Amino acid sequence: MFELTRKNTNHPTYGINPFRTMEDFERNFFGFPFGNFFDNRELAEFKTDVTDEGDHYMLEADLPGFDKNDINLSIDGDNLVISAERHSKYEDKDEKDKVIRMERSYGSYSRSFDIGGIDADGIKAKYEDGVLKLTLPKKQPAAPESRKLEIE
Predict the structure, then answer these.
(1) Element housing 57 (H / E)
(2) Is-above-0.85 flag for pTM?
(3) Per-residue pLDDT tens for 2-21?
């Protein structure tokens, strides 16, 4: 007759539906063919590194492709705001009709940093090779004032 055998449920092909696999592939490919590549949430915040150099902090922000004039630094109270804006070179209607695909991001980018412990007057900025470098000197602790008190 026939032999009864136990089904191996740990086998990797058990339960695979080739139609569902193809449907998932098609949905992922045509729904989001490049994943989150075009999702600007990832690009809205440029990446930064902050290191403690002893008497100052070094903040390095990756801003590749920006012109130095398109980067703005401002201090608002205890907040340092770094903002940058990249303009599309295809904003003209004549040029836009020629574009087949545009993957590079354009728009405004901004980050805010608390500089409560920083000497704001001593901040220095340098932009080179797509990296903005800020030297943020630490505030010196206020030395206790000594004074003589008069006895009444």
Answers:
(1) strand 56-62
(2) no
(3) 344 444 444 455 567 777 77
